[in-house]
What we know:
The structure is a homodimer.
Chain A: H1 4-16, H2 25-35, H3 42-53, H4 62-82, E1 87-88, E2 91-92, H5 94-98, H6 100-118, H7 123-152, H8 158-183, H9 188-215, H10 218-221, H11 227-230, H12 236-244, H13 247-257, H14 262-275, H15 278-299, H16 308-318
Antiparallel strand pairs in A: 1-2
Helix pairs in contact in A: 1-3, 2-6, 3-4, 3-8, 4-6, 4-7, 4-8, 7-8, 8-9, 9-15, 12-15, 13-14
Amino acid sequence: MYTPAQLQEVIENAIQNINYPAQPEKLYAPIRYIMSMGGKRIRPVLTLMAADLFEADILKAIPAALAIETFHNFTLVHDDIMDNAPLRRGKQTVHEKWGINNAILSGDVMMVEANKQLSMLHSAILKDALETFNATARGVCEGQQLDMEFEQQAIVSIPEYINMIRLKTAVLLGGAMKLGAQVAGADHNEAEQLYQFGLNLGIAFQLQDDILDVYGDPEKFGKQVGGDIIANKKTLLLLKLKELASAEDLRKLEAQSTNKDHTEKVKHITGLYNAYNIPELAGIEMRNYADKAFDALNAVKVPESRKSELLELADLLMSREH
Amino acid sequence: MYTPAQLQEVIENAIQNINYPAQPEKLYAPIRYIMSMGGKRIRPVLTLMAADLFEADILKAIPAALAIETFHNFTLVHDDIMDNAPLRRGKQTVHEKWGINNAILSGDVMMVEANKQLSMLHSAILKDALETFNATARGVCEGQQLDMEFEQQAIVSIPEYINMIRLKTAVLLGGAMKLGAQVAGADHNEAEQLYQFGLNLGIAFQLQDDILDVYGDPEKFGKQVGGDIIANKKTLLLLKLKELASAEDLRKLEAQSTNKDHTEKVKHITGLYNAYNIPELAGIEMRNYADKAFDALNAVKVPESRKSELLELADLLMSREH
C-alpha cells in the first residue's frame, strides 16, 4: 500500500511527463504554468488511493488521476477570470499574465486535455469512467454558477448553501474516488460508497474552511483570518447567524457589513458568532458530514487494514488547524 | 440513402429532444438559446452522411452528430466573447444577453454536454471516436489561438494562414466525417479518406468565403460586401496582394488601411486586387483544395452511387455565389 506522500510524488512525476504540444506557445504555456504550481494534489491522490484500496495496479489509474487534476486546474483558470482574482498560490493568475481571451482558450484546451487523458483508460471501463467524469464536470460547473448567483442573492438558505458547496467542491472529490474504484474494477456499490466518502468528506472539509477562516490559528492559516467576514461572504457561519440572531443583532450585523475598519468589523461579527454559539453549531454540521464520510468508508467491503491510509488522510484533513 | 435536407431534419429533431437540466436556469438557458438558433447544421449532417455512405443505421451516429454540433456551438459562445461580437445570426450573443462570466461557464458546460453525447456511442468504437473528437477539439482551439495572434501580427505568410483556417474551421468538418465513418465501422483508411475530404472541403469553403466577401453578389451575400477589407482582415486576398504588389502599391494599400470612408476604401483595395489578378489566383488556390477533397472521396471504396449525395452537397457548397 502506498502513502499519500508516495502517491503525491507519483502524480508530480506523471504531470511532469505530460507532453503538451509546443505550438501555439501562448495556448500551451498557461497550461504548463498552472499545472506546475504544485499544491497538495489531493484529488488525483484520492483517485490513486481508491484504486490502491482494491489492490489494483495504481499505474492503471494514472490517466484518470491526471484527467481529474487537469480538469480541476481548468476550473481554477476559468474561476479566476470570473472572480477577477489577481493571484493564485501567491503567483499571477493565468488571465493576469496572458490576458482574459488567452485564459478562456487555454482553459478550454485543458478540458480537451483532461478528456484525452481519460480516454487512455482501458476500453472495458471507459464508458463507466466517462459517465462519472462527465457527471462530475457538470456538477462542478453547476456549483460555480450557484456560487456566482448567491453573491447577488439577498437570501440563501443553509440547504442551498450546502448544495452549492456539494457541487462546486465536493462532487470532484467524490468523482475522483469513484473513478479510482472503477479503474480498479470495484463493483457498482463499492464505487458508490467511495463516491459518498469523497463527497461527504468534501462537504465537511469546505465547512471546516468556513470555520477556520474565523477561528483558525492565524500563524498557521496562511491567509488573513476573517477574510470571509471582511468580504461579507455567505459562509455557513454567516447563514447560521442570520437564522438565529434577534432583530437587533441582525441590525448590528447589517451595520457592520459596510464597516471600512476591517479589524473592528472582524471583532464585532466574531463577537456575534460567539454570542450565538455559531462555531459549535457549525462544528456539529461539519462533523455530521465527516461522520457520513466515515460510515461510507466503513461500508466498503475490503479488509480494514487496507483502509488505514485513507482513514489517516481523512483524519488529518479533518483535524487541521489551518 | 438520405438527402442532406432529410438529415437536417433528423438533427433538428434530435436537438429538440436533448434534455438539459432545468437548474441552474441561467447555466442551461444559454445552451438552449444558442442550440436552437438553427443554421445549416452542416457539421452533424456530414457525420450522418458519412455513416450513411457506409450503409450504417444513421440513428447510431446521432450521439456523434450531436457531440459535434454541441462542440461547434460551444466554440461560437466562447469565440464571440473573445471577438467582442454583439450579434450572432442577427440575435444577441450569449455574453451580451447573460454577461461574460455566465457565457464562459455555459460554454464550459456545453463542452461537458458534448462529451456526454459522445459517450453514448457503442463501447466498441468509443475509444476511436474519443480520439477523433479530442484531436478535433484541440485543433479548433489551436486555430482560434492562431487567429487571435495573427490579428496582432504584422506579417502572416499564406501557408501560416492556410494552417490557421485548417485548424479553426476545416478540422471540424474532417472530424465530423471521420466520426461518422468510425460509427459505421469503416476501416481506418476509409475513415482517413473521409477526414481528408472534409478537411480539404473546409479549407476550400473558407477560401471561397474570403473571395465572396469581396466578389460575392451583394443581393445574396447576406452581409456587407467588403466587410473583410473594411476590418483590415488578413484574408487570402490581402496576403496574396501583399506578396505580389509593388512598393508603390503597398504604400497605397497601407494608406487605405486607415481610410475612414469605407466605400472609398473598398473601391480602392478591390481595384488593387483586380490589378494583380488576385481573385483568379485565390480561385486557383481554392480549387486546389476542392480537388483534393474530391480526390479523397473518389478513393473511398464504396459504390459510386452511394457518393452522389455527398458529391452534390460539395458541389453546392463550392458553387455558391453567397
